[in-house]
Task: structure prediction
Amino acid sequence: MKFADLLIHSASTMVTMEGHSGSPARGEKMSEVGLREDGAVAMREGAIVAVGTTEEVLAGGWVGPETRRISAQGKVVSPGFVDPHTHVIYAGSRENELSLKLKGVPYLEILKQGGGILSTVRSTKQATDEEIKAQTRRRLQTMLSLGTTTVEVKSGYGLTLDEEMRALRLIKELDSEQVIDLVPTFMGAHAVPSGYSEEEFTNYIIADVLPQIAARNLAEFCDVFCEPGIFSVHSSERILSKAKQLNFRLKIHADELDAAGGAELAAKLGVTSADHLLQASDGGIAALAEQGVIAVLLPATSFNLAKNSYARARDMISAGVPVALATDSNPGSSPTESMPLVLTLACLYLRLTPEEALTAATINAAHAIGRADEVGSIEVGKQGDVLILDIPNLNYLPYHFGNNPVGTVIKRGKVVWN
Ligand code: NIG
Ligand code: FE
Result:
């Protein structure tokens, strides 16, 4: 018998998230995090081979002379965080918009004046492949240090066929060149560039862009910014229906700034996830629950837009909508890489318990990007993506905020950050 490469043992608390890999956790199941006291996990060749108490794992025969042992005594062990909604592939930054925001200029007004997303489109177009990759690599490195081991990345700062293909190609390259696993999403319908009407640009995406992205297999998901003044429910339905025909899985930025029926459209199309949802109607929430659509909530965006308005997570959980959490990391509405910050905001403002928040940031987030068979829980057969958190108990995770609770990050069974 071959021995494990790595053993984490003696964790005060190990959160396994076991039992949710088949379908996302909803309702009361979001509180079932699979706690083990004196927990241990053994990994070999990148995968988890044994999970249990320290005594059980040691008795299982996996631990031999060549096994590296790390004690997690007094600490919490959890699955690596999965961030299922980011826009990290871009060049530049937009700190200049802070003063506009503080003067009360709305986010969509900045975009209408040619700033916002369109300003990042310009800075990205001017950058070389290497510059975009170097800047994105740094963001991913920050994410890793904060415990994130799998990340969805959307294109959408290109808005032409060539620039969108370039972004998706760079995501693929970065996926193989650094530690975090990346899941690519095509989001060409992120803003309407100047020179186009909404309808003309929608036609362009449908006829000229989507089929090329599909033919080259550059993305798994297709996403749309469905928002009045950007892409209407009608345009979003046209784009996502075409994407579905081309075998993309679907996502939608829905009901973020205005109630427009985005959640209802998400349910009608059977998307994998509907994201933001601050203004989702009661009927929209019921429809998401009915269809089993995952709500990806982004409290760091609410926080950063400073509008004191957060998604109705408690109503969603009561209605049976599976909830996931993400950073929405992007240069405008959410310039952060921190899932620990998102967990704190989720507890304070979405009113999730620490258990629900951690479920939302691990196994439900993995479901939201089609990776629940591989990551999101500490179970035999899954990838060895494990965190040792430098905290005494689970409540401490959202409680002590603005710092990094992560002590050690293990990706595919190897220590990659500590
Ligand atoms: O999810 N809503 C659209 N896209 C991003 C913002 C992108 C940006 O401002 O650059 C979001 O908030
Ligand atoms: Fe977003």
